[in-house]
Amino acid sequence: MPHGLTFVYRSHYDGPLSKRVVHLPHADILAWFREGWDAPDPHQWITQSLRGHVYGLASAFERARELGVPAPESMAALLAHLDEHLYVEGEILHDEHCIRVLTDDDEVGLAYFFFDAHAVAEHADRLAFLLHEDWPLPTDADPSRDSGFDPGFSLTELSPAGNGAGATYMVLGTFYDSDSLPGESLVIRGVRLPGLCEYLRTITPRPMPPTSWGYVGPWPLEPRLLRGLVREGETTLAPALERLRDHPIQSLGNSSTMELGIGSHADAVTGFADMAASLSPNSGDATLTKITCAEHFAAITQHVSDFFGHQQWWLFDDRWAATHPALARSLLRHGRTWDPLA
Questions:
Q1: Which string of b and e fits 17-49 if b means at least 16 CB within 10 Å?
Q2: Each residue of 244-297: pLDDT tens digit?
Q3: What is the rounded distance in angstroms from the CA atom of residue 50 to the CA atom of residue 19?
Q4: 210-236 per-position pLDDT tens digit
Q5: Given CB 3.0 to 4.6 Å as the disulfide criterion, which of 77, 161, 220, 270 pairs with 190?
Q6: 300 in helix, strand or coil?
Q7: Which pTM was predicted?
Q8: Beta partners for residue 292, in sequence order
Q9: Three-state SS for 216?
Q10: Which phi and psi angles does 7 have, rounded to 5°?
C-alpha cells in the first residue's frame, strides 16, 4: 500500500492503459490542495505535481483567487469549495478519503481520482486495476480452478452459450465518439479462452437481450470483429489480435452496419475484410500497439489514434479470474462504470 496520496487520471491521452497513476508524498487530500492554493501558476503547478494536464482541475484554484477565498482549513471546507467552483462536465463524488470526478473535454470522456492511504486500503479490491500501472497484467492462471469466480454484479451476456465449462469475459476500452466512458464488459458462458476460437467459428451470434426501452440489437461490434479476424485452424487469439493491429477500427466503428458479422463465420471473415479494404487507416502507429496472449488471458492495447492514443481489449476466462479475483472484478467494473466505488 502506498503511503501518502494516490492520483489517477482515466484519460485516453495517457499511455497504453489509458490512465495515469501518480503517487504523491502528501499526507492527505487537503494537504495537496493547500500546497497548490498559492502556487503562482495553478496550471503549471498541477502539470508538475500530477505529471501532466488534468482537464478543469485548475479552475478550483483560479476561482479561489478571483473570490479571495483562503486556503481551506478542513476537508469539509475544501469539498464545499469544490462542489461550488470546480469546473466539471459530469459529477463530483467525494468523502473524507477520496474525490472522484467525471468530466469531458468536448472530445472524449475523462475521469480523475484522489485517494488517500485509508481509501486505498479500504477499497483495495475495487481499485486493483485502476491502480495497476504497467502493461501487461499478470497472465498466469491456476488450471485447477474450475469454478467459483463471481464478478459480484450482472454482466451483459453474449449468446448462444458454449457447450463446455467455465466462462470467457471481454472488457472493451474502444470508443467511436465523445461518449467514450466507461466502455463495455461482456461474458460468454460455457467456453474458456482455449476454446474461444472454435466457438467463434462454429456459432451464429444471436441478438442481444432487449434493452429497458425494448431495443433488440446484434452483438457489439468488437466481438463480431474478433469473430471475423479468427481463421480456420487457429487455436489461440494471437493471430487474430495481430490482424487487429492494423485493422482500421476507428473508421469501422463510424461506418459499419449492424448486419456485419452476424451470419456464418465465413461471411464474417469476408465481410470485415471487404469493409476494411474500403476504409481509411488508423492515424495511430501500429508499432506502438502491444499484445499479450496466454492460455487463459489475452489483451491488446491498439494505438488507434495519433491524438487519443491507445484503446484496449481484455479477454480472460474464469480460471484467470479465479487466480486474480480482485484484478478481474475491478477490470470488469472498469468496463461498466467510470467510478470504481459505484
A1: bbbbbbebebebbbebbbebbeeeebeebbeeb
A2: 999 999 999 998 788 999 999 999 999 999 999 999 999 999 999 999 999 999
A3: 12
A4: 887 888 889 999 999 999 999 999 999
A5: 161
A6: strand
A7: 0.95
A8: 299
A9: coil
A10: -115, 135
